[in-house]
Design brief:
single chain, disordered N terminus, 613 residues, 6-stranded mixed sheet, 24 helices, 5-stranded parallel sheet, alpha/beta
Length: 613
Amino acid sequence: MALSSLMTKNKILVVDDSEMIRVAHSAILSGVNAQVDVANSGGQALALLANEKYAVILMDIQMPGMTGFECVSIIRQNPDTQHIPIIFISAQGNEKQFVDKGYHLGAVDYMIKPIDPDRLISKVNVFITLFEQHAKLEVSLAEAKAIQYKNDQLLNYMAEGILGLDTNNVITFANIAACTLLTSNREQVVGRSIKDFVNPASSQKNWDLSEFNSIFKDGQCNHIEDALFWRNKNETFPVEYTQASILQNNQFVGGVVAFQDITERKKDQQKLLNLARYDQLTQLPNRSMYWDFLTKSIASCERTDNNIAVLFLDLDNFKQVNDSLGHDAGDELLIQVAKTLKHCVREADIVARVGGDEFAVLLLNPRDSQVAATVAKKIIEDVAKPFPIFSNEVTARMSIGISVYPDNGQTATQLTKAADTAMYHAKASGRNTFKYFSREMHERIQFDMKITQELNKAINRDELSIHFQPQINAHNQNLVGFEALIRWNHPDLGKVGPSRFIPVAESNGLITDIGDWCLLQALRQAKAWNDQMPASKKINMAVNVSSLQFKQHRFAEHIIHLVEQSGLPSKHLELEITETAIMENPKQTIEEIHKIREAGIRVSMDDFGTGYS
């Protein structure tokens, strides 16, 4: 019978209680050389496994009735299915308890929904290849047991190594592949004990009691997917092998070992591991590996009473480089910055890329708190040196936040958040500098969080009010208008100054709603006053506009609509715009100002001369 006719058809099993996900995964895998079967529960999956062989199983975790973990536990207890590779696919995220449990049950990988199609296809193809190789090996072994003494020449041309053994485990046959893998010389293989290639350091007593020897004596078969064979007693190489007893009239008369070198497979597995643990652009540890290492380092420090310094770094001008020189230049800058960072720390310390232009440095057991400051200064100085980027010289700037274990946190999350907070304070302090995390920063964060929560309620509670500051003509002392000033009177916090709540409102996006409310209130008040005044005494209303309001889509049209809604003639409104807001995006700002002026609304510059002018 031909080898191909005995081969098992490639099949993939997708187990998920969501029909949408089953359809999505089936569509992703449609281009793979395999049939895709689906199961909507653990029970249905077990029923399919009773009659079918699968190259790989994609298993959801959270399913009604039987969880993915429970289903896999049953699969691993069945000798017929226990070797099938299983990839857990879950929406639970990288929570350690789920990941550890999955690998403990024997999963080969753990992927997070939504799935990246290319990564899924790549991983599935690896296991299909292994399945096909495994199927070939099993077929080869079945044929070898039947025709071992009649068809040695056929075995010689197999890619897998084939060894025939007598009742004393002495090698009586070795095909060309086996000789090449073990010593490259047939005379040095045939006539020797298999012990010399499986465990040459073992004593004879231990060998007699070993599992490998017992399998043959008991007339059984065994398959090992990851083992080591010896080459010339001085080096090992990874193999997958199957051993089977040869019986005649129920009597043990010898054995067969079929094996293959899986060095390339191991390399592929290492590549997959690197993809999961390392940033592919900079070759630095990625965010996942950073979290794992920091968590383990904290656990070690708890036992040894050592400390850790966490530096969180962000390039200040990365967007400018991307926008002006292109993304390829941005990538090259990140690569060169990564190399610079590694040269600024000890070999034992960790440098990781944790975001687009964000990096983290773990200083393990620095002798004192000043070490982190010294390293931060060196990083800022070295990064500031011009980098050659595609015939350009690019100067980078970096803001750094520092937190220290255990003073600023006792978990990876706390330390990272503290360092991130300090980094943002470094940016607020002018950038290209570093800041240590402090209690004041923590209190500021807590206060800003409370301000954010209360601001969401302030408008509905009528806690915000508008104060009107008169504008007087300096020549004749006549009243010409008012400037609208927003104030907040909180029932518990008291009077909260604009300098405290306006920046918070800008940082969390509430400024647009607050700005619209303030503008509309001011417009309505101006109309009410003007309705009571003669034409010659009409007053104007000046209202400040945040730079974030200017970034709104179709800002000018929005302002014009509010003016029309209020009923105040547009000529009586004056928008005060800061110089900084204008310079953030001059082209867009000028276009918006032209539209506003064409509608009859006046525009003036606030804080003139404090920034660019």
